[in-house]
Write a structure and sequence with these properties.
Elongation Factor Tu (Ef-tu), domain 3, mainly beta, STM4215-like
């Protein structure tokens, strides 16, 4: 799964307290061969009415009975099958799925007998948030700015207000530099860089009583969200922003056309998360036929002054050999990777 998408989902989970109580349920799955381990935080998408509903994400809960020799919180799925505990990523009654609802693991997990996984008993326990300052809907959208905000609102499929929309803006090196192959603040190691992911979280209020009430409600929600987000590093066992926590860059109001301002108020938070980006190594090595090796050794005439002796040595299966015998260092053969 995209590291950006994973970060978006984790950010949603941080805001769960404003959306209500989570639902919980069991999803049945069976390994096709060797045991499969479902890690805590593995996401699944419900299939409702024949359509995958990614806006209703659930994820594997912490398994308190995980043996000490296995990954903390993971679930073991054997050949005979097992039920894995899942919770909704957000709160609300819409996460109370009926018995028999099927789910798609996202990202997929290899080694299972089926792609569509059933929940025999369904999910239960979800309760909507209520009262002033409750968030009734929270979605990930592509955009919510510019000249076509009303179009963006329709595309986000928001149905209840007040609500919030989370959008991704950019991913740049953590220190702002794009100069490669030099030692800088965002370079954490060889082929490892720190990146800053930028997001915009917009709160939309549409109370129809007075403009003052709309403003008061939107300000209350945006303040609560800022308190939940700021300096957060992890949620539900998922990494959110490290080594520094989530940083709030600005809190602002969105300029709206007059006709929209009479019905909506939109306040936004610009925030940044720091993530580690590692190079994916897909190199393949061919077997070496001959190794050209240069060795420093004492000269018999000049005494301790070293000279360099270069020799060509045949290779056998990637191991360094001399006259057919492997060269050993600390009792182990010297293995050279590469091709030539």
């Amino acid at each position: 799964m995209s590291f950006i998408n994973a970060n978006l989902r984790a950010l949603l989970a941080v805001m769960q307290p404003l959306t209500g109580v989570r639902s919980a349920g069991l999803i049945q799955m069976t390994a096709s061969g060797e045991d499969v381990f479902i890690e805590r935080g593995q996401y699944a998408i419900p299939v409702i009415g024949g359509r995958a509903a990614p806006e209703l994400l659930v994820k594997a809960d912490l398994n308190p009975a995980t043996p000490s020799d296995e990954s903390p919180g993971s679930w073991r799925v054997p050949f005979v099958g097992a039920s894995v505990g899942f919770i909704s990523n957000l709160g609300g009654v819409r996460y109370n799925f009926p018995p028999g609802t099927t789910f798609l693991l996202d990202p997929p997990v290899d080694g299972l007998t089926a792609t569509l996984l059933p929940s025999a008993a369904g999910f239960a326990g979800g309760i909507d948030a209520s009262g002033f300052g409750a968030l009734l809907d929270l979605v990930i959208a592509e955009n919510l700015s510019g000249p076509a905000q009303s179009v963006d609102l329709r595309r986000s499929q928001l149905t209840r207000f007040p609500s919030a929309v989370l959008t991704w803006r950019e991913a740049i090196p953590a220190d702002g530099s794009s100069v490669p192959q030099v030692r800088r603040g965002s370079r954490a190691g060889t082929r490892v860089n720190l990146y800053r992911l930028g997001y915009t979280l917009s709160v939309i209020a549409s109370r129809q009583d007075t403009q003052h009430e709309r403003q008061h409600e939107a300000l209350s929600i945006i303040s609560s969200l800022a308190e939940l987000i700021t300096d957060r590093q992890a949620v539900d066992g998922e990494n959110l922003s490290n080594p520094s926590g989530v940083q709030i860059q600005s809190i602002r109001r969105e300029a709206l056309p007059q006709e929209a301002f009479q019905r909506f108020i939109i306040y936004s938070i610009d925030l940044n998360c720091t993530v580690t980006l590692c190079q994916r190594d897909s190199r393949e090595y061919a077997e070496w036929l001959v190794a050209h090796l240069c060795i420093e050794k004492p000269d018999p005439v000049l005494g301790p002054l070293p000279v360099v002796d270069c020799i060509d040595i045949p290779m056998q299966g990637g191991a360094l050999t001399v006259e057919g015998d492997p060269v050993l260092i600390d009792g182990r053969p010297v293995i050279l990777e590469g091709g030539g």
